[in-house]
């Protein structure tokens, strides 16, 4: 790589210390068409204007960009949000206050009508790029974030979750110790009504029956993310689908045995539509018999749960 002079705008934030005025070249950088999204994946610095755009901003729009340095890989964090004013500020602060100093932060807003935009604009001098416009669902927004990412690894932090302040430092240590690793994952604190109720420890061997680790703890190599993308076939569990693909295709991984993320339970229950989605996912990956066994087990649980609660 050619020598690039780094610029520090504010040493108090993880996203404002290692910047450059040299824009990366993304011309002709189009990935293969995904069989799941049926879209060519083009990497861009700014999204072309979409339906109902309410604005865009951030460091990129001011001519500041990011890149990787020796022993300082660039880590991209993407937050997707829609009407998330309740917890978004806490999420943003947990990213920009990281102890690691080469972080790229992208926020994709789905056209919020509450105070979300005001919160984003409050912090836009510490955000690399944000955009607010309609999308086709959470995974469309997450794929938009992937197309904008310039980091070696990309993570998704929900708009009501937050990182420990040393999370990205811990992840980068794992990356530097395993230079070719495809993805990193860790432990997740589960929070309900503001109280930590348990820790979600990874169980990779159980990936055929449940989410093997908390998806907010996933840091995935950008080139792998661009190849796989998030499938639009699963409106609620495309992140689980992506993790299954990583495991069955034998992408390499490292478990960081530390709490990386706080995950706030949002009350999503085991609805009929969610069960149907799981059924399709299991059938597509593991066959009809596996999917049928899943439905039977869920039906038994639905019968037993009310009895246990009495």
**Number of helical segments?**
8
| Cα end-to-end separation | 66 Å
Q: Assign a percent range to the helix content.
A: 25-40%
Detail the poorly predicted runs: none
In a few lines, what is going on in this structure?
The chain is an alpha/beta fold.
What does this structure look like?
It is a single chain. The protein is α/β, with parallel strands linked by helices and 310 residues long. It has eight helices and twelve strands. The protein has helices spanning 88-96, 116-122, 138-148, 167-177, 222-228, 238-248, 272-286, 288-309, and strands spanning 30-33, 40-42, 55-57, 75-81, 103-109, 129-132, 153-156, 162-163, 183-192, 195-200, 219-221, 253-264. The strands form two sheets. Strands 3, 4, 5, 6, 7, 8, 9, 10, 11 and 12 form a ten-stranded mixed β-sheet that branches. Strands 1-2 form a two-stranded antiparallel sheet. Helix 2 links the parallel strand 5 (103-109) and strand 6 (129-132). Helix 7 (272-286) packs antiparallel against helix 8. The chain is globular and about 60 Å long. The mean pLDDT is 92.
What labels would you give this structure?
310 residues; alpha/beta; ten-stranded mixed β-sheet; two-stranded antiparallel ribbon
How are the elements arranged and paired?
Blueprint lengths: L29 E4 L6 E3 L12 E3 L17 E7 L6 H9 L6 E7 L6 H7 L6 E4 L5 H11 L4 E4 L5 E2 L3 H11 L5 E10 L2 E6 L18 E3 H7 L9 H11 L4 E12 L7 H15 L1 H22 L1
Parallel strand pairs: 4-5, 4-7, 5-6, 9-12
Antiparallel strand pairs: 1-2, 3-6, 7-11, 8-12, 9-10, 9-11
């Amino acid at each position: 790589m050619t020598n690039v002079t780094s610029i520090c705008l504010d040493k108090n934030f993880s996203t404002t210390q290692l910047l450059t005025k040299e824009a990366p070249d993304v011309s002709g950088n189009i990935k293969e068409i995904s069989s799941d999204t049926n879209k060519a994946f083009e990497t861009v610095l700014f999204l072309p204007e979409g339906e109902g755009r309410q604005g865009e901003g951030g460091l990129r729009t001011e001519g500041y960009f990011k890149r990787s340095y020796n022993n300082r890989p660039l880590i991209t964090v993407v937050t997707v949000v829609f009407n998330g004013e309740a917890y978004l500020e806490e999420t943003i602060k947990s990213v920009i206050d990281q102890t690691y100093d080469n972080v790229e932060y992208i926020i994709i807003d789905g056209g919020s009508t509450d105070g979300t935009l005001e919160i984003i604009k409050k912090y836009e001098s510490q955000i690399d790029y944000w955009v607010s416009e309609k999308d086709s669902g959470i995974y469309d927004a997450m794929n938009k974030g992937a197309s904008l990412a310039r980091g070696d690894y990309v993570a998704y932090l929900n708009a009501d979750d937050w990182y420990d302040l040393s999370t990205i430092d811990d992840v980068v240590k794992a990356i530097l110790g395993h230079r070719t690793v495809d993805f990193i994952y860790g432990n997740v604190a589960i929070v309900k009504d503001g109280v930590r109720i348990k820790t979600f420890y990874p169980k990779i061997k159980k990936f055929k029956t449940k989410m093997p680790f908390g998806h907010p703890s996933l840091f995935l190599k950008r080139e792998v993310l661009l190849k796989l993308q998030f499938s639009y076939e699963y409106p609620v569990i495309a992140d689980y689908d992506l993790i299954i693909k990583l495991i069955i295709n034998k992408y390499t991984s490292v478990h960081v045995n530390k709490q990386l993320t706080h995950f706030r339970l949002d009350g999503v229950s085991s609805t009929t539509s969610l069960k149907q989605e799981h059924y399709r996912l299991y059938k597509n990956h593991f066959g009809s018999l596996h999917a049928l066994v899943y439905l039977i087990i869920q039906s038994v649980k639905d019968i037993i749960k009310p009895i246990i609660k009495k």
